[in-house]
Each structure stands twice: as structure tokens, then as C-alpha cells.
Amino acid sequence: MICPDCEGKGQIISYACPGFRRIVSPCRLCNGVGTMTPEALAAVASGEAFRAYRVAQSLSQRQMAAAHNLSPQVLSKIEAGLLPLTESMRRELSQQRVAAAALEALAKDLQKE
Length: 113
Known about the structure:
Elements: E1 11-16, E2 21-26, H1 38-56, H2 61-67, H3 72-79, H4 87-112
Antiparallel strand pairs: 1-2
Helix pairs in contact: 2-3
């Protein structure tokens, strides 16, 4: 499967000062390969889902990291899909999804009445 960051190119192009130098680096998400395993793509999706959950809760990375006994740097890597979710994060995200599904079902029931 094609890497969503580098779009299969295996590298990322950035620009830096001074002089607006062009820098070509290996993609950090796919390690310069351009493709990812389904498991790696699932880690990216899980990280994005957890980031969305954290933002919806109006929590900073520092606050959420402290709640899970992580450093903000590790949480950032988890949200980027570079590291897997911890067990406590999976549980929290699962509980949030169950609660969201229950609220959605309740809203549909109320609309029917």
C-alpha cells in the first residue's frame, strides 16, 4: 500500500534557511520505502483517531501524555502513527467510540418520535 506521507516516492522534500535550501530526506513514516504494510497503515489511522479524540476533549498533548504516563514526544509519535497506541489508549478510544455510537443511536430514536 502506498505511503500517505510521501505518496510512494519514499522521500520528503523540504526547504530550510538560510538561503531556502532544498533538503531531500527519507520519509519517516515508511522509512524511505514508499509503501507500508496494512499494520503500519492501521497504526497511522489509530494515531489520527486518537489525535481527533484528544482535540475533541480540548486536551493538549502535554495533558493527554501525562494522563497516560507518556512524554509529549512519545504521544506525538503515537499520533503520527510511528508508534502503536498503548493499551490504555486503545481502551479509552474504544470506550469513546462505544459512547459515540450509543449517542448516535439515541439521536436517531429521538428523530423517529
